Structures are given as structure tokens and as C-alpha cells.
Amino acid sequence: MKFKAFLSEHGVNLLERRFLPALDKMGKICHLFLTRDHAIFLHNLLNGDGVQCIAQFRKEALFDDYRISSQNEDRIAFTIDVSLLLRAVRSSVSICTEFGNGPSANRLQIKLVKKLPPNCTQPMPFLTFETKGYKSAVIQDVPISKPLSRAEVLELQTALDVAQELPPTLVQVPDLNQLQNFVERMKHVGDLLNVSISKYGDLHVQISTTLITLGAEFRKLLVIGEQAEAPTEERNLSAQTRSERAISRGDAQSVQGACLTVIFQFFIPGTRQTDKSISLHCRLPVLDPGSS
């Protein structure tokens, strides 16, 4: 079982500034699943409770050089502390910047090793970061779990396949910041958020308490998957009424922050062209199975 690769400058920026800080907020531990073509961070995928998160990268998105081999179809998986991983990446960037002419002056190598820690009698696995300069090298060891067995890797792969199944209807939200700001304000009102998505391209977000009902509607969004035409006679009705009627007809689905798949779309820098080498999606836990 071997893995060795060189992180590219673009890969370091993706991990250090965007993905690892986000994953660190999700939870302390995640799986890192390495295959011939992908590096995948999996949070909470084997547990039934809590938010599930999958960040998947084609090897070219993170690495300049990528070599992997194992007796399990060149697949290797283990658990790792995200905060320690983030700290190692940031330290390596700092070292490269301080002793080189920018982050790309020195190559950042990452590999799986076994080492004998102090006061231990058995070698333990580590994900090692090695920053090689002209005259010196700095090595950082991030402890990991024992690599998963063949059966455990199969279980993880099965869970990944299930988690990546898409719901029949998705809507594309063009202004994520607007939606995020609204949800941030809503969380001070109550704990449960009602979300409904229609085949017409409508997204309804609402929170209710005994004293107040607060909601927002995003209409005529791009629909991916099953679509339908909105009844013309309902155009002047309230958002709540239209949502309720669409749900009763089977043209919309409603959940309370549950069974909700959020897929983030990434673009190639400087363009509006989708970057298919990176994917991130999250699934919120089920709170109301009856209406999912």
C-alpha cells in the first residue's frame, strides 16, 4: 500500500483557504478516500445522524504528480483529524513562503508512511508533509487511523454511491450569499427551517414560531431534473398558498431542514465555465420523514 504525490500551488490554495476550513467546521474527523483518479473527503458518511459532506477532487485539481498502489484496486482510505491536516498545510505554506520565493518555489510532497513514535513499540501510520528546499527539508507528520480493510473500503464506497444519488428535482440558486444571509437571520428566530422546492423553479424558505412567521421566496430558478409549468391561475396567490398547492399536487417537495441536498457549483477562474474537476455537496439530516 503506497501513496505519494506533490501538491500543486492551486491544490494548496483550494485546501488551505476553502475546503479544509469548511470541513473543519463540520466536524473534527473525516475520511480521506484516495483512488486512482480522485481524492475524496467524506464527513459523517457512515453515520446516520448529522450533516453529511462530500468534497471530491480529480487528482489533477490538487496534484502535479500522483502515485497510488494497493491490493484493493488502488484504493486507500483512512480517517484523519481535519484540524491537524489544516495546520500542516498552513505550516507548509508558511515555510515555503518564508524560505522560498513564494509558495511554488519549493515542492510540497505528501505521502503515507509508517513510523515508530516515541514510547511506542509498534509503528503507526502517518500522512507526511515534506517541504523540500534547496538546502533543507521540513517534515510534518499528521497521524491517521489504520487504513481501512477491503470490506470497510467497500462499505465506504457503497455509502458514497448512495450519498451521491440526486433528488428528482434540483433548483439552481444564483446568489448564494443572499440565501446565506437570509438563513443567518432566520436562525435567531427559531430552530426548524421549512424548505420547499417545486418543479416550477420556486424555492421557499420559511420559519415559524408561536409569535412570528418569516419566509423568503426565490422564483423562476433554473430547474435541473423533473420540471413542470406553474398554473397561470395561481400567479397572484401568496407564496405560502402556491407552495402548499404545489406540494398537494406532487409538484413540490417540502422538508424541515431535512433530506435536503445542497450541491455547490464551481467555475474555472475568470470564466463562467463549470469546473468539473471539483465537486462538493452536503445532505442535511432527516427531521421529518413524513414530508420528505
From TrEMBL:
<dbReference type="GO" id="GO:0000724">
    <property type="term" value="P:double-strand break repair via homologous recombination"/>
</dbReference>
<dbReference type="Pfam" id="PF04005">
    <property type="entry name" value="Hus1"/>
</dbReference>
<dbReference type="GO" id="GO:0031573">
    <property type="term" value="P:mitotic intra-S DNA damage checkpoint signaling"/>
</dbReference>
<dbReference type="GO" id="GO:0005730">
    <property type="term" value="C:nucleolus"/>
</dbReference>
<dbReference type="GO" id="GO:0044778">
    <property type="term" value="P:meiotic DNA integrity checkpoint signaling"/>
</dbReference>
<protein>
    <recommendedName>
        <fullName>Checkpoint protein</fullName>
    </recommendedName>
</protein>
<dbReference type="GO" id="GO:0035861">
    <property type="term" value="C:site of double-strand break"/>
</dbReference>
<dbReference type="GO" id="GO:0006289">
    <property type="term" value="P:nucleotide-excision repair"/>
</dbReference>
<dbReference type="InterPro" id="IPR007150">
    <property type="entry name" value="HUS1/Mec3"/>
</dbReference>
<dbReference type="GO" id="GO:0030896">
    <property type="term" value="C:checkpoint clamp complex"/>
</dbReference>
<dbReference type="GO" id="GO:0033314">
    <property type="term" value="P:mitotic DNA replication checkpoint signaling"/>
</dbReference>
<dbReference type="GO" id="GO:0000723">
    <property type="term" value="P:telomere maintenance"/>
</dbReference>
<dbReference type="InterPro" id="IPR016580">
    <property type="entry name" value="HUS1"/>
</dbReference>
<keyword id="KW-0539">Nucleus</keyword>
<comment type="similarity">
    <text>Belongs to the HUS1 family.</text>
</comment>
